[in-house]
Amino acid sequence: MRSNKRRPGRPCLLTPVRVDAIVRASAVGANTALAAEAAGVSRATLARWMARGRDAAGVREDGVHADPSDDAFVDLHRRVEFARAQMATQALARVLQAGAGSLVLEERVRTYTDPVTGLDAEERQVRYLRPDWRASAWWLARVFPEHYGPSAKIRDEQHIEETHRERDLAETDKLASLSERLQAVLTEAAVDTHPTELRAPTTSPSV
After folding, report:
1. What pLDDT is attached to residue 50?
2. CA–CA dist 179, 175 (Å, integer)
3. What are the pLDDT digits (tens) for 103-159?
């Protein structure tokens, strides 16, 4: 005889422990595959969880009634996105510091006795990374690719070629116009000028 009781559904694998593991991995720049491995799930599963959380968060932002069953997925999506944003911001800040030479490599605090006052004093010694223009160039190429990326150089070269081509065409047009005006002046001068008749020299009658 078949039982009328419904079989319990499969428990969701998205547990608080797995959420924390995924967020920690995302905070250090791990991609989806590595974050999923850190949580003990497949990449496809994590991608599905993130997609569900993203869609549910978007629906809630639009004012649609929230489904309580999506709460855990929305929380996962928001925490992961926040962790990734913080990681990227801190990494970019370090790149700028490397370009400016303000990235701290080593910091020490030396304690000594002031010979004048006889009191204990502390001296902070900091060693910075030498400024590296390549770090700034890397940052510019990725944050402002339209101006400093590889494609910007191609566009600049194309713009220079177009400028030279337009200048050559303009000079050609000027020369053609000048040639036409000169030809018109020469033609008009030829029409207005009549050749002078040469007369035979007159001789005086001999006496």
Report:
1. 96
2. 6
3. 888 889 989 888 888 898 888 888 888 899 898 888 888 888 888 888 766 655 655
193 CA to centre of own chain: 71
DSSP, residue by residue, 51-74? HHHHHHHHHHHTTPPPPGGGHHHH
DSSP annotation of 197 reads P
Give the separation between CA 15 and CA 64, rounded to whole angstroms.
Answer: 26
156: its two tokens: 């600049």
Cβ atoms of 26 and 84 within 8 Å: the answer is yes
Top pLDDT among 111 and 1 is at 111
Structure tokens at 172: 């050609």
Element (H, E) at 121: strand 120-128
Residues 6+ apart with CB under 8 A from 175: none
Q: SS3 for 26?
A: helix
Largest distance between two CA atoms of the chain: 169
Q: Any bridge partners for residue 179, and if so which?
A: none
Q: What is the pTM of this model?
A: 0.57
User: 124: which strand partners?
Assistant: 109
| Angstrom distance (rounded) from CA 27 to CA 53 | 18
